[in-house]
TrEMBL record:
This is Phosphoribosylglycinamide formyltransferase. The keyword Transferase applies. It catalyses: N(1)-(5-phospho-beta-D-ribosyl)glycinamide + (6R)-10-formyltetrahydrofolate = N(2)-formyl-N(1)-(5-phospho-beta-D-ribosyl)glycinamide + (6S)-5,6,7,8-tetrahydrofolate + H(+). It comes from Selenomonas dianae. Gene3D superfamilies: Formyl transferase, N-terminal domain. The gene is purN. CDD domains: FMT_core_GART.
């Protein structure tokens, strides 16, 4: 099994980043976090990474005339750090097909809803407005669409009668912190096989893969 080098893209405070860093430190994810990239200089995710001695780079969207230039700068950083697997941990920009093709089948994202329901930036608001009784989160491979790639893992939480976007988000976030590291672990261990839209999780038998 080769050692994967993770490149983690963030836009905000980096709570999912923190859960991934902790799982790596505990040895649960047999990989190295090679670099953390944020699209905002004030993103607290950068401070989290630097506190752990992990290279942290701000590639600021507004500094580039075109999205293609912004994405090329991110790809240059990923390649410079030898990244083999890209993790979108609260990264709030849609990636172009050019970026996705550079890491085809090697980009994982977490979305705060049970895809294919409620894609996009307002998942909690949309779930509450629809009146669903359960919500949750989804780890999926990234393809050229918006939150449309093959599903790896999902977790379900109840929706309470008095939920607000904030209370629902907090309940979902607890599950994000649980299943995102698990999905990364499965990938790094070579236990994911994608056939069409289905992601099969291979069992471990007798100390090796079946």
């Amino acid at each position: 099994m080769r050692e994967e080098r993770l490149g983690i893209l963030c836009s905000g405070r980096g709570s999912n980043l923190a859960s991934i860093m902790e799982a790596v430190e505990r040895g649960e994810i047999p990989a190295e976090i090679a670099v953390v990239i944020a699209d905002k200089s004030e993103a607290y995710a950068l401070e989290r990474a630097r506190a752990k001695g992990i290279p942290a780079v701000a590639v600021i969207y507004q500094d580039y005339a075109q999205r293609a230039d912004f994405e090329r700068a991110m790809l240059d950083e990923l390649h410079a750090h030898g990244v083999t697997l890209v993790i979108l941990a609260g990264f709030m920009r849609i990636l172009s097909p050019v970026f996705v093709h550079a890491y085809t089948g090697r980009i994982l994202n977490i979305h705060p809803a049970l895809l294919p329901s409620f894609p996009g930036a307002h998942a909690h608001r949309d779930a509450l407005a629809y009146g669903v009784k359960v919500s949750g989160c989804t780890v999926h491979f990234v393809d050229e669409g918006m939150d449309s790639g093959p599903v790896i893992l999902q977790a379900v939480v109840p929706v309470m009668e008095d939920d607000t976007e904030n209370t629902l988000a907090a309940r979902v976030l607890e599950q994000e912190h649980r299943i995102f590291p698990e999905a990364i672990k499965l990938y790094v261990e070579g236990r994911l096989r994608t056939v069409g839209r289905k992601v099969h999780i291979l069992p471990v038998v007798g100390g090796g893969l079946l």
